[in-house]
Amino acid sequence: MPGPGAPARSVLCTGLLLMMAVPGPGSDPRPPTGPLVVFNPGSMARPFQELLRAFAAKHPGVVPAQESSGSLEAARKLTDLGKIPDLIAVADFEVFPTLLIPRYASWYALFARSSMVLIYTDASTRAGEITGDNWWRILLSPNVRSGHSDPALDPAGYRALMVWQLAERYYGEPRLAARLAAAVPPRYVRRKSVDLIALVQAGELDYAWEYEAVARIHGFRYVKLPPEINLGDPTRADWYAEARVRVPGKTRSATDSVDFRGQPIVYALTIPTGAPHPETARAFAQFVLSPEGKTILEGNGFTVMERPVFRGPGHVPDLLAGSKK
Q: Which domain holds residue 219?
């Protein structure tokens, strides 16, 4: 197991980072107006609601519409249904190069981070005993009910499976990942991780896998996992990469499945190719990445990168100019 000082392929610290370009005197002064359709991950439903509300308050001519879903499900709205939003944000930046580039997008911006945790309440079975060291023993105990989101639709789902794989190596427990998987019946799997919140609140589940930001937004107690397994430490990319999950495609066959490897959790956004209202989308993207947008995201429990990192083969819009790896 690599120590804290081991080399890592950090997705956060590579490449030269430049400040976002400021529109010059020749820039179009017209304020954004008209519809603005945004697809966002379920875990960012509340902050994006606040972002859209604040943006519309600055630009009363904008009519925002928000769709929250698992990030894989959101991507497949473009690829399978032909629904093109003005902006799409995802909970795993790898969704863009894996599913949407180059046909549906040509660039993306990494902008926020979180980590995986296990949420629970005071009423959860063995709530007074669970810690960051014994959580897996608690989940494998009789009469303990735990759940996660669907790995085929939501990154939080396949990240829960990655946490189990990493825990198996970290704790030296043979077949731990398989044993934890067997302890979650299909009835405790939901389309997106935030759908599990009501089950935990109602006492139908004792524990559920969520992002730390979501746990903080909703005021849950949560188990803070060791950095070796929580997918939240950007210096441990090499260690996380040992975890891999094959996600089924729309036919759930081997021919259209996709492999995801463990990486530090990083959120990203883009303006899709063919966005109906690209100018309004650019203005909103700039707002999300602005100091005001950063304040809203941080107020909702997310760790916002000091500067966004831009990637992809295409040209980044002028209002989002920065560095690309």
A: 116-247
The number of distinct structural domains making up the chain is 2
CA distances from 266 to 50, 115, 182, 211, 235 (A): 20, 9, 28, 11, 13
Domain boundary among 213, 247, 281: 247
Six token digits for residue 220: 């849950």
Residuewise pLDDT in 10s, the chain (325 residues): 444 444 444 333 333 333 333 344 344 568 899 999 999 999 999 999 999 999 999 999 999 999 999 999 999 999 999 999 999 999 999 999 999 999 999 999 999 999 999 999 999 999 999 999 999 999 999 999 999 999 999 999 999 999 999 999 999 999 999 999 999 999 999 999 999 999 999 999 999 999 999 999 999 999 999 999 999 999 999 999 999 999 987 655 445 689 999 999 999 999 999 999 999 999 999 999 999 999 999 999 999 999 999 999 988 876 564 445 4
